[in-house]
Amino acid sequence: MKVIITHGDILAVPAEVLICSANIGLRLSGGVGGAIRIKFGNAVADGIQAELDHYLQSRGIAHANQGDVIPTSGGGSPFRTILHAIAVDGIYDSSVPIVRKTVGTALSLAKANRVALTALATGYGHLSIKQFGQAIASLFREEYPPVNTVTICVRHESDAQELTQMLSDFGYPH
What is the model's pLDDT at position 78? Predict the structure, then answer.
């Protein structure tokens, strides 16, 4: 599996599947969810939000659980599927094992050649880029057919450099 690390706008990454951070309430209110509303408009965001609301309502629950990955359509965005990965709890805490489990689950569900991945639990969440790197490094030794390219998009160039170094320290070539 090829891993590309970049920085900037994850919504501009060419991919069939977007793995984005989500909160337990499944609200597209901030982070990548908020960016979807800003970049693609209310109609797209409202459609995706309706799918997330249906997920909760159909199960009779008020919120999803940390570690869950909830698929929706791309809702008119360039992505065929959006996987809403919940790596944080209700107060935005997380851990390296939880992020590893959540990203692994999301990659297993991706079922696409090209996947865009955000640095889960590092925005509103309390993990560092270094901890995110520790969480995902071992995952790229696994195979998640048909995934062959994962583009990890972080916010800043310094984050991209740190993540690149982290993966290199774990022996992953890029």
Answer: 97
DSSP string computed for 52-99: HHHHHHHHT-SS--TT-EEEEE-TTSS-SEEEEE--S-TTS---HHHH
**Domain limits at 78?**
2-169
Whether residue 132 contacts residue 121, with contact meaning beta carbons closer than 8 Å, is answered with yes
For position 173, what pLDDT does the model report?
60
| Number of domains forming the structure of the chain | 1
CATH code assigned at 139: 3.40.220.10
Residue 141: band (very low, low, confident or very high) from pLDDT cuts 50, 70, 90 = confident
Q: What is the pLDDT of residues 57-105, one digit of tens each?
A: 999 999 999 999 999 999 999 999 999 999 999 999 999 999 999 999 9
- Which of 173, 163, 120, 165 is CA-nearest to residue 10? 120
Distance CA(49)–CA(155), nearest Å, equals 24
The reply to whether 165 falls in a domain is yes
